[in-house]
Structure of Transferrin receptor protein 1:
Amino acid sequence: MDQARSTISKFLNGEPHSYTRFNLTQNMEGDNSQVEMKLSSDMEEEVGGNGVGEHLNHNPTNKPYMTQRLRRSPKNLCFMAAATLLIFIIGYLIGYLVHRKKDFAPTAAASTVPFIDAAPVLQETGAAPLMNWDNVKSLLAQKLSAAKFEAVFSDLSSTNHRAGSPGDEVLWNKVFNKFIEYGMDPWIDRHYVKVQDPPVSGSNRFVFKGGLEERPDGFLSYSENGEVTGAVVYAHYGQDKDFMMLQNKNFNLSGRVVLLRAGRISFAEKVANAAKLNASAVLIYPDPTDYSIGDNTPLFGHVHMGSGDPYTPGFPSFNHTQFPPVQSSGLPKIVAQTITTAMATKILRQLQGQAAPGEWACYNKLGNDSDVITVEVNNVLAEKKIYNVFGVIKGLVDPDRYVVIGAQRDAWGPGFAASTVGTSILVELARSISDMVKNGKSLPQSLPMFINVFFSSWTDEFNAGEYGSVGATEWLEVRICSPPGHKAFKVAGSPLMHNLIENTLNEVSPHLEPLKMDDAAYPFLAFSGISSVSFRFTSGSEDYSFFGTKLDTREKLNSVTGNQVPQLAITASRFAGHMALRLVHDHLLQMDLVKYSRLMRSQVSQINVKVKNILRMKPQVLPKALKVVWLASASGSYSRASQKLALDIQKSDLENIAKCRLLNDRIMSVERNFLSPYVSPKESPFRHILLGSGPHTLAALSNHLDFLWTDHPEADADLFRNQFALATWTIQGCANSLAGDIWSLEKDI
């Protein structure tokens, strides 16, 4: 970590820098954890008065932006902004390299889209910034226009820009040159990653009941290769509850080929769930009730239960890496393949056996032993050179602190919603904010930039993409070592950022949802412990059907949004810009520590109830010496520490920049300290014990208690006690770090 800080400091001080000189001697052995995300319902509640940064406001006349109503047409009501950024995700990442250093050297232009704005409560915090926050917002609004977005869309659109392809190289050069034009001192990093592509010669194929051979064009990267034969069983979306339904009907999944609908969870989770039950293969198709993409449109994706290059888990893919051959534990051991709607329909209509549950409501039969299918996958492993492009607007006070705004650049096919819109917003925000800083220098008041803003164009950022956040995760691995219509605005992010998100939104009603594994911001939070947020427009509960297909074009997106893509891009840019500028504008970060207290209490309460039931009804399963009081005590320590921090803030002089820096250090330590130090990133990449994925999370502890209660074959009382102890100490360690002065809390701890 010290070397990471040194590397970034050298860059920010203008010294030459190179990732290839980055030394990885400080590894992740003591900084990792795996977790299953499970948000409690009370996380959606507004927490009044407890968020960090609501003290000592300096702008009591904070004014909201002027807005106009969006003109609604039938198309707007059907798919208003169905995904302008449908996983465009401007991943927001407060990339804080935190350390305990004690010495510190006119109104907005109206848009046709209802404007997202800071609520009146979001007022200036600390140190009386040089520019009024209303003026900052107004200045940003003046920089953004539909005409400028149309021009950028045209410039950055491409029919073929897969990761590592010549088309992607053209695009990263365009972004790089724009960053030069904006005076952002850009740089690139190169990674040599192993990815799985479709067969160069031949094809993947399947044959059902001795019929005609089918050769699907789509594929799932990182599938196991080989040929398997087994009976088909239909398992709905492949969620845990779906497989539980089949088990309740006495289905034995061992050796079966599972047919699944796309959606609800990621491809990787579907395959992992099937593999746990010893299925031999998985076929995934787009059902017409979820996807309006036609009968013969192929799907693309990946099935790695992780992110980044699975052949360099936990460390970056440099060409000089001298590690022995290794691979991620998240790679599946079974065959997986996507098929079209038409192919799936032929299979479903011929299935025999038991009737499907009524709530699955599509097809009558689940399949039996006579429904035999042969599936063959022949994907090819290839090494590709990928590029990430970075530009920076330097801050004035804290050169080792930064906010990162990032977007995916590559895609299968045109990828207009998947990458072009996001990259365009990234570029326009970079231009706008750099202009604000330049213009500010000639004004009596200058735009306050107390910490750095990094703009990042990643290759294959999305877990939902074909390779799984390769570019973003490789960069992270370096840094770790170092209602229908426009109102359906969905935001997923770290609980620390929920109040900031809610305060940044005004007329557009957001739907806060948990970060999912196929969300591009997820690895930043669960893998690296960096507070992050992503957002997208949808039509109510429906997402943009063409995402992840070669039909994701500018024309399609304009069609489903009523030609409102530029206006929606402005809305997204202002939301993204306001969040980023708010974080670099104020001396004190507006983070809400109480949300994690509620989430933790909810999960600890579930564990407590289950342990008591087992001790009462099945005393032979767990020893009487096991007490939940220690876990509850650690949770209480965190809650008291967060309350103490809020009190410290109220008592502090927030005009004191050094004091704010110390307070920010304590705030930003929370996310990082929720990463379990007791597991390897190779085995458990998503180490966040509350929002990650794996056996060392509180959610996994609760699930393990269910196994113990039902005498499940995977139940292991000794393993549970070990995981219980490690989770307890992880939470206690987070509380200790948050408390600040640990010695004054000795009795409480």
